[in-house]
Design a protein that fits this description.
Blueprint: E1 2-13, E2 20-31, H1 34-43, E3 49-55, H2 58-69, E4 73-79, E5 86-92, E6 95-102, H3 108-122, E7 128-131, H4 141-150, E8 155-158, E9 172-173, H5 177-184, H6 193-204, E10 208-212, E11 218-222, E12 227-230, H7 243-256, H8 261-276
Parallel strand pairs: 1-5, 3-4, 7-8, 8-9, 9-10
Antiparallel strand pairs: 1-2, 5-6, 10-11, 11-12
Length: 291
């Protein structure tokens, strides 16, 4: 998806309705969603091939150009009758005043073509990332996970919705605290949190579950009964947009380098803390991980 920001000043209220009038001074555009995951991976010096969907529109052309400039291998399936997913944010003095979404779901033919692309590209990858944003492009996600696992590729899934059975066979699934509670009915501060997390690992049939908890850090639960917790790095938070994408990207690169779980989530925590300290959708930098 394309993340587009209109940045400006507010110095009056509209005479037409009780709403602020924003005088736009600048426009900022960057890759969002799975594109942000890919841009983060590329920013860390890793090769990344991205499969996704776009409309035959200006937003799609901008998104393709932004990703190419970020050194991401772009494989966009163009829907001439659809439109590119776009999030337009109107911002003044680092405060988001309004968000406007544009989107459409890809058709069945495009999805089938994307799965064929996935089978070809994943066979040559070290790690597979599937970012689920509930936009309709992953109706065959179970088949895709099976393909990657048959090729002995680790699969990271950033989930959406309450049906985690779709992710059966994945290496690791990365819900945030709200998503975890929606699936299990158990909050991360509840005494049954650990039992519910291990139960979900077994129920879904995955190797590990990583629950991200914002300022409380993140906890990993593996299928062999081991829990690893990583505290958050204290920072002043400006914008949480894209923090989960950065976590997934760092997991992917770390697994590609065959790091252990503790090293993976330590790097993921450090990277996420860096991007939330900057305004707008941001990618991690190697300098963010210098420590």
């Amino acid at each position: 998806m394309l993340d587009r920001y209109w940045l400006g000043d507010v110095d009056r209220i509209s005479p037409e309705a009780p709403v602020p009038v924003v005088s736009v001074k600048a426009i900022h555009e960057c890759a969002g969603g799975a594109g942000n995951v890919a841009a983060n991976i590329a920013a860390l010096g890793s090769r990344c091939e991205l499969i996704s969907f776009a409309g035959d529109d200006d937003a799609g052309k901008r998104l393709s150009a932004i990703l190419s400039e970020a050194d991401v291998g772009v494989h966009l399936h163009i829907d001439p009758d659809g439109r590119t997913t776009e999030k337009l944010r109107v911002v003044s003095r680092n405060q988001q005043l309004l968000r406007i979404d544009f989107e459409s779901q890809p058709n069945a033919d495009l999805i089938r073509q994307s799965v064929l692309d996935f089978e070809t590209l994943s066979a040559h990858a070290d790690v597979v990332v599937i970012s689920d944003y509930g936009k309709g492009g992953l109706s065959q996600i179970s088949e895709m996970i099976s393909m990657a696992r048959a090729a002995k590729r680790p699969v990271i899934v950033d989930p959406k919705g309450e049906d985690f059975s779709r992710y059966h066979g994945a290496t690791i699934v990365t819900p945030n605290a709200h998503e975890f509670e929606a699936v299990t009915g158990v909050a991360v501060d509840h005494p049954r949190f650990e039992a519910a997390a291990f139960g979900l690992v077994q129920e879904v049939g995955i190797s590990a579950l990583l629950v991200t908890q914002g300022s409380e850090g993140m906890s990993l639960f593996s299928d062999n009964g081991i829990r690893v917790h990583q505290d958050a790095v204290p920072v002043e938070v400006f914008d949480v947009s894209g923090a989960g994408d950065t976590v997934v990207a760092l997991l992917a690169v770390s697994l590609g380098l065959e790091f252990g779980w503790s090293e993976c989530i330590k790097l993921a925590t450090q990277g996420a803390s860096a991007v939330v300290s900057r305004f707008g959708t941001s990618v991690v930098r190697i300098s963010d991980l210098a420590a």
